[in-house]
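Table S2 (continued). Query chain:
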Amino acid sequence: MAQDVADGVRDDVRDGGADDAGRRLRASLEAVLMVADEPVRAESLARATGESADEVDLLLRELAGEYAEQGRGFELRETSTGWRVYSRPEHAEVVEAFLLDGQTAKLTQAALETLAIVAYRQPVSRSRVAAVRGVSVDGVVRTLLTRGLVREVGVEATSGATLYGTTEEFLQRMGLDSLDDLPALAPFLPEEVGPEDLDPPEVLAPPAVQPAGPPPDGGATAMGEDGAPAGAAAAPGAEGPESPGGPENPTSQEDR
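Corresponding output:
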């Protein structure tokens, strides 16, 4: 009799431990899905939680069913690229009203700091802004892009990183006619630091040059009286037309 009681207690403890582990795993999955900004595959969630992909997939389907049954304002949906939490379509109007209202709300301190760095250091990359602030600025930059206060202006010449600058909307909101009207930066720097001590500005890559197409008349080039292409300027000291880069007129190192 005593042995039966002991066995029953052990079974209850084991089952209770399994339930606790299951609840912790479900909570872990929900936590990851709440912060994911793109669909997450079950395999990725399995690696993060240390569980098998099959177990994770089963729990995800259970969670999706529970959310639907409980009539939550969100749903867990499986897409071709993984699982993600979405707001339910029937609440689209409320979500839209909230987002539109948020565009007129005041900027956070983090957004103001990021905007100031972009304004004074533009064109500037996210990594440079993050280095100045000491934290990731991806979300803040997205907010500023949505508000129309900053825009992508091109890429950095060496790294290829996207560079950002301010917009006309920024100038209007700040009551400025141009960036030249920004307050001087020097008074806001520590006494031992001057503008010349700051990192050099990032360099905007020049726009790609499109190759010239053939002349409209099918490739024929109008020739002048001296046999050179019409409108072409003769090189100093040249006795006659020569092809650029040809054996008799090699391209100089500067031209390369």
